[in-house]
């Protein structure tokens, strides 16, 4: 249990005990009951207003502690999101690099085969040309 709650409970107990002592010893319980309803309401309003304010302040400080904790957690999540974004950018860059390398390899191999193939200079025989096209279509773009 938080020390603020213990402090509030002890002050509340002391306040109510002192109020009851004042009511019984000074005013008298018989006299208090015979007071008009408006006077009883005014007395209770004045008696419990400081307690309401005390618990309002205690609640404020406890919420402030929770808000500070939540702010720290949000900052950690933001840092984690930034790291994830950086990792995602790097991963996307390398995937794009791989795609470009594959495309350039395919273009270069087709260009080489068209120049050196049977319709070009003839350095590659028809059988080698078919073999290289099979390799290229199977994913070996280099």
Q: Please summarize the sheet with the most strands.
A: none
**Strand count:** 0
Low-confidence stretches: none
Strand content: under 5%
Q: What this model shows, in words?
A:
- The chain is mostly helical and 142 residues long.
- It is built from four helices and no strands.
- Helix 1 runs antiparallel to helix 3 and helix 3 packs antiparallel against helix 4.
- The mean pLDDT is 87.
Topology, element by element:
Blueprint lengths: L2 H25 L1 H5 L3 H80 L9 H12 L5
Helix pairs in contact: 1-3, 3-4
Compact overview of the structure:
The protein is mostly helical and 142 residues long.
Task: List key phrases describing it.
rod-shaped; 0% strand; 86% helix; 142 residues; mainly alpha
